[in-house]
Design goal:
- By secondary structure, this protein is of the alpha/beta class.
- It has a single domain, classed as Rossmann fold.
- Helix content is 46%, strand content 13%.
- A six-stranded parallel beta sheet has the order 3-2-1-4-5-6, with helices on both faces.
- InterPro entries: Glyco_trans_1.
- GO terms for molecular function: glycosyltransferase activity.
- This is Glycosyltransferase family 4 protein.
């Protein structure tokens, strides 16, 4: 997009900012921890391909022995019913208050946001990524789009090589074998996000940008 804009006007001033959120707001939301560990995906029925892939990867992985799978899904009720039939043991939640949703993010063992190798996914950077890092989340994702520019596998996220069941299941198996590493990854995820996805981080640069217009 930047290169296309420069083709129209090579002198135009541009500032690039990733998805951001108010970390101070997130810090004040209490994490309501549940008795047993769970993995969480949040999205709409329009992403059913991703939903089914996550379910299959979870069922293929040993992580199912120690953690349940939950999804917050909104959208087409027919599709939601089909997902329930496909994975009847999975808890599906809907229409949560935002603070309750963030509390669930904070309580999760890991949070799914796998991007596909498509123009649509490569071009976008979901806002949930900054929300997940603000919640000290272990982000389970893929190596597409902007992900490699911000995240490192096993350092501040779990990054699958490809968008498929085997690659995601491999990351979940690593999580199963290395549960003692989750605290470290959660901390690094939060610190990364507070540096690059935090609203206040861009205050000075945006102010300077506006002055130069």
């Amino acid at each position: 997009m930047v290169s296309k804009t420069k083709e129209v006007n090579k002198f135009i001033k541009i500032i690039q900012i990733p998805p951001i959120c108010d970390y101070d707001y997130f810090d004040h939301i209490i994490c309501e921890k549940e008795a047993s560990p769970y993995l969480l995906f949040c999205g709409y029925t329009s992403y059913s391909e991703i939903i089914y892939m996550i379910i299959d990867a979870y069922n293929k992985s040993r992580i199912k022995e120690v953690a349940s799978l939950k999804m917050v899904i909104n959208g087409n009720p027919v599709v939601i019913s089909e997902i329930r039939r496909y994975c009847p043991k999975m808890e599906i939640l809907q229409n949560l208050k935002y603070t309750d949703l963030i509390s669930m993010f904070k309580g999760a063992l890991a949070l799914f946001i796998p991007l596909r190798n498509t123009i649509q996914d490569i071009a976008r950077f979901p806002n949930k990524i900054c929300e997940y890092t603000a919640c000290h989340g272990v982000v389970v994702t893929t190596r597409y789009g902007e992900i490699p520019y911000y995240f490192e596998d096993k350092i501040n996220a779990l990054i699958a090589d490809d968008f498929n069941v085997a690659s995601i299941a491999e990351q979940l198996d690593w999580l199963y074998d290395n549960m003692d590493q989750t605290a470290r990854i959660k901390k690094n995820s939060y610190l990364l996000g507070r540096r690059v996805f935090n609203l206040i981080s861009y205050k000075d640069s945006v102010t300077e940008f506006l002055k130069e217009l």
